[in-house]
């Protein structure tokens, strides 16, 4: 979590494998908009409807995330999903399958915005793949209310790390810390995501999953807002090498982390 993803200019192309978007599928889109609008100051505009009702969240007029509504008969897990950039989503989806992963949705076109797929790694953790055309993804980073980091929480990092390295070409850097199984994934020498092997400490009700971190200005005030808006605090604020961090859940149970940068 040492560096935020780069802010893309209007014509920038994301390096394949770079986390470029986060999306949340929920059962009650209106109440979810109220929660995140109150928490992060997001506003919402309609987005592509290929998978059902979908909105883009904006901060100061710039896109930061997406939210969609699950079909009423689908009791799928409600969770934030990171999307990783690709130059060719169809080819990347084929590589996912060849390396032991699964492609659950797509590849398919998202109107004029780009082409996407939803996949899972061999351990079952879900992620998206995004090939941009008109829209590159998150247009603003490094300020409160924007995604700042994504971390895979899994059983162990060695085998799943090989999967992500094979699919996206990441460089792996072990995090030197006694008793911790952690890797930092890098592209062109820049940290872009983390892997955390938790062994038997991984929550059984969730299994392997990606966790998104959002930057906040005041973590104490943010946690008060979370509970006031109907969310829950899962792990209170604590110090980390990257600032004060806490884990929370929105009213539908989607978990995410908030971090107050020490700078």
Automatic annotation (TrEMBL):
<dbReference type="InterPro" id="IPR037523">
    <property type="entry name" value="VOC_core"/>
</dbReference>
<feature type="region of interest" description="Disordered">
    <location>
        <begin position="234"/>
        <end position="263"/>
    </location>
</feature>
<dbReference type="InterPro" id="IPR029068">
    <property type="entry name" value="Glyas_Bleomycin-R_OHBP_Dase"/>
</dbReference>
<dbReference type="InterPro" id="IPR052164">
    <property type="entry name" value="Anthracycline_SecMetBiosynth"/>
</dbReference>
<dbReference type="InterPro" id="IPR041581">
    <property type="entry name" value="Glyoxalase_6"/>
</dbReference>
<dbReference type="Pfam" id="PF18029">
    <property type="entry name" value="Glyoxalase_6"/>
</dbReference>
<protein>
    <submittedName>
        <fullName>VOC family protein</fullName>
    </submittedName>
</protein>
<feature type="domain" description="VOC">
    <location>
        <begin position="18"/>
        <end position="132"/>
    </location>
</feature>
<feature type="domain" description="VOC">
    <location>
        <begin position="146"/>
        <end position="261"/>
    </location>
</feature>
